[in-house]
């Protein structure tokens, strides 16, 4: 399908190939991350960081998306693909793309980034490139700190092939007994708790596996070490819990976390110099097919490059940015300001610490605050918000915390938080059976001087995570509006009690009212356009894959309504197709901050209706999560949000543009919107 081709439509029928494949769309998002690493206008260490992010992203893609697809195919479960292609065809296609991008990633580091780092006196060397004194230093370090934690495992009739944990780096070693003439296979695991790249001198580093490989004779004394090769496996890390039959979600999840460590292998990465016989042994023992073997230039696992990106070389990183505190100055009375007006904060440009975090911390110690209710999906390792909630409970306030213990890859951390909060006297709930609690809500109930009770609400697009709030772009609405307070209170009652409230004044709540609420408003834009009234749809979100939402946008486009979509990651909609979506534009921005906010704007006949909240337009968000959008009513705040979306779609803004084929392109030059926003907030 190309721009020049029209789509044959019969009545209101839509073509069967109108959806892009979501897995391929995700891979092409990560390819844009790789393109950032290839951007010479970015500071060098930031390019290194994007190489690390690419690796981490791809790991998660295999652990969850590829793993889930392989499991469903293997077990005969029904598989729904966005594009409608057979799942085996999709799997083969995305595996080929993933291999292509992985190879580009590894080669770019080796051929471009490593030489550029060397010019700046930052060298990542292999063992044979080290100087004599540096090798001696590593020998001493090996004896003192590395050797004691290594456990070589040989495979022989008495020792079966060892379990290889997911994301671990390993050495496959061939050793020969010179007396018996017998050759054995052995595995040495590279310790994850040691530095991925060992410093041998200022600005000079060597991969940890190279240091271990150079000392294999100490691990196998009396044996001849014939060869060694680095390899790495990725395992299925997706969790499956039937909440309808489990009696204790917490205990069941803890058991599943232990089981997840032993998930099937979905990817085997090996250095491209590996001996074919060793590779045959690995694939046989791990029970994997050739299709999931990824031969790459070493060193493997470039996610460890984040340590290089963290080096103290400010001339090769982004200039330091300090978030603004102008929305809520430190000397202002927070509660008085919120009583006087709604506040819209835009992180990281507006300080999370000085606004959202401050609300919870001041509420914890304010004697007039009676209760605090909060959702926690992800938070930081040492969370000031959790500490504040504990302090509030210690002070005798009623503290209710809805902790989502099924937040992917944060399950164990959230279990720990939940137990810590419970021990402090907080009322901890785990949400609703069968649904993840993904909404970002905080509610403070305060007794005012006149004896009345007032609700102070926060509804956000991002997690209550002080660390990521400095890196993720998000919005939050702070308000004492009575309708919002009543709605948020009703959501908490829904989460902690046994109720099904579906009528809200200023909220759309998934899984009941969010999708139909958005689709109804899209249909209203169609009616307004047909009536000659101003009509337009503008969305900003992370992902768009829900077929009903996409079809509603297609109908709007066919009716003549302009649709602008500002989407960071996955997009299964084909824009710019004559007869289907010629009135739809899709843009994407990647940069210093992770675009994370969700904003939905409807022109509404010239009086824009604006919503913000936690929900992306995906099945899981609309059907299997508790998500919340709040309608923003303040004129200045509506103008700020609509202006942001318009600036993102402007032809002069540096963004990626999506073609009908699902390919992204970015014109040269243009305005960096994130840089502009930083300048404005400075």
Assigned CATH class of the largest domain? Alpha Beta
Judged by helices, strands and strand pairing, the structural class is: alpha/beta
CATH level-4 homologous superfamily of the largest domain: Polyphosphate kinase middle domain
Number-wise, the strands total: 27
Counted by DSSP, the helix tally is 19
Radius of gyration from the CA trace? 27 Å
| Inertia-based shape | globular
Note poorly predicted spans.
Answer: 1-11, 241-247
Q: What distance lies between the first and last C-alpha atoms, to the nearest angstrom?
A: 46 Å
Mean pLDDT: 91
Count of domains:
3
What summary fits the major beta sheet? 10 strands, mixed
Could you say what the CATH topology of the largest domain is called?
A: polyphosphate kinase like
Give helix % range: 25-40%
Percentage of β-strand residues: 15-25%
CATH architecture of the largest domain: 2-Layer Sandwich
- Quaternary structure: single chain
Task: Explain what this protein looks like in three dimensions.
There is one protein chain. The protein is an alpha/beta fold and 682 residues long. It has three domains: 127-307, 2-Layer Sandwich (polyphosphate kinase like); 334-501, 2-Layer Sandwich (Endonuclease, Chain A); 508-681, Endonuclease Chain A (Endonuclease, Chain A), CATH 3.30.870.10. It contains 19 helices and 27 strands. Strands 14, 18, 19, 20, 21, 23, 24, 25, 26 and 27 form a ten-stranded mixed sheet that branches. Strands 10, 11, 12, 13, 15, 16, 17 and 22 form an eight-stranded mixed sheet that branches. A six-stranded mixed sheet has the order 2-4-3-7-8-9, with helices on both faces. Strand 15 and strand 16 (453-460) form a beta hairpin. The longest helix has 33 residues, at 87-119. One of its GO terms (biological process) is polyphosphate biosynthetic process. Its EC number is 2.7.4.1. Its cofactor is Mg(2+).
């Amino acid at each position: 399908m190309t721009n020049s081709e029209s789509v044959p439509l019969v009545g209101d029928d839509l073509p069967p190939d109108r959806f892009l494949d979501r897995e391929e769309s995700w891979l092409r998002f990560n390819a844009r991350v790789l393109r950032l690493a290839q951007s010479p206008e970015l500071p060098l260490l930031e390019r290194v960081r994007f190489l690390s992010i690419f690796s981490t992203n791809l790991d998660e893609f295999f652990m969850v998306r590829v793993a889930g697809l392989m499991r469903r195919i293997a077990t005969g479960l029904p598989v729904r693909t966005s594009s409608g292609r057979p799942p085996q065809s999709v799997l083969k296609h995305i595996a080929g793309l993933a291999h292509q991008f992985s190879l580009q990633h590894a080669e770019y580091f080796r051929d471009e980034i490593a030489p550029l780092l060397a010019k700046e006196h930052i060298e990542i060397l292999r063992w044979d490139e080290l100087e004599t004194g540096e090798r001696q230093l590593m020998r001493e370090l090996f004896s003192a700190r590395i050797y004691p934690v290594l456990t070589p495992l040989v495979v022989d009739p008495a020792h079966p092939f060892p379990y290889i944990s997911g994301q671990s780096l390993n050495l496959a070693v061939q050793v020969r007994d010179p007396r018996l003439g017998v050759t054995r296979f052995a595995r040495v695991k590279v310790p994850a708790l040691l530095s991925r790249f060992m410093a041998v001198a200022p600005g000079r580093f060597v991969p940890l596996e190279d240091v271990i490989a150079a000392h294999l004779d100490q691990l196998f004394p009396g044996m001849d070490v014939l060869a060694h090769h680095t390899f790495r496996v990725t395992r299925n890390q997706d969790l499956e819990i039937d909440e309808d039959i489990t009696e204790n979600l917490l205990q069941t999840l803890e058991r599943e976390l232990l089981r997840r460590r032993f998930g099937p292998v979905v990817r085997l990465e090996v250095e491209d110099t590996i001996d074919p016989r060793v590779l045959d042994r690995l694939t046989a023992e791990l029970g994997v097919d050739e299709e999931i073997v990824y031969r790459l230039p070493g060193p493997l696992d470039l996610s460890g490059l984040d340590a290089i990106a963290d080096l103290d070389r400010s001339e090769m990183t982004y200039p330091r940015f300090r978030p603004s505190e102008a929305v809520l100055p430190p000397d202002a009375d927070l509660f008085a300001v919120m009583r006087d007006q709604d506040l819209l904060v835009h992180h990281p440009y507006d300080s999370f610490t000085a606004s959202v975090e401050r609300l919870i911390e001041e509420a914890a110690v304010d004697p007039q605050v009676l209760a605090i209710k909060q959702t926690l999906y992800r938070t930081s390792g040492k969370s000031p918000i959790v500490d504040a909630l504990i302090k509030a409970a210690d002070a005798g306030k009623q503290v209710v915390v809805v902790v989502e213990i099924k937040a992917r890859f944060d399950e164990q951390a959230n279990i720990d938080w939940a137990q810590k909060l419970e021990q402090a006297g907080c009322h901890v709930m785990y949400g609703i059976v069968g649904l993840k609690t993904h909404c970002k809500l905080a509610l403070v109930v305060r007794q005012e001087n006149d004896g009345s009770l007032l609700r102070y609400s926060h509804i956000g697009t991002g997690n209550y995570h002080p660390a990521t709030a400095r890196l993720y772009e998000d919005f939050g609405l702070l308000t004492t509006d009575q309708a919002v307070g009543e709605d948020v209170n009703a959501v908490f009652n829904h989460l902690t009690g046994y109720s099904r409230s579906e009528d809200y004044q200023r909220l759309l709540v998934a899984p009941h009212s969010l999708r139909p609420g958005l689709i109804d408003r899209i249909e209203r834009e169609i009616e307004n356009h047909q009536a000659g009234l101003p009509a337009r749809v503008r969305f900003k979100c992370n992902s768009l894959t829900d077929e009903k939402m996409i079809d509603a946008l297609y109908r709007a486009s066919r009716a003549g309504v302009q649709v602008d979509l500002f989407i960071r990651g996955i997009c299964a909609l084909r824009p710019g197709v004559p007869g289907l979506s010629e009135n739809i534009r899709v843009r994407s921005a990647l940069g210093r901050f992770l675009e994370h906010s969700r904003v939905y704007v409807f022109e509404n006949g010239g009086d824009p209706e604006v919503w913000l909240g936690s929900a992306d337009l995906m099945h899981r968000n609309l059907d299997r999560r508790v998500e919340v959008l709040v309608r923003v009513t303040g004129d200045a705040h509506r103008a700020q949000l609509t202006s942001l979306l318009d600036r993102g779609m402007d032809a002069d803004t540096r963004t990626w543009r999506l073609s009908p084929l699902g390919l992204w392109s970015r014109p040269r030059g243009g305005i960096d919107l994130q840089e502009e926003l930083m300048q404005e907030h400075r």
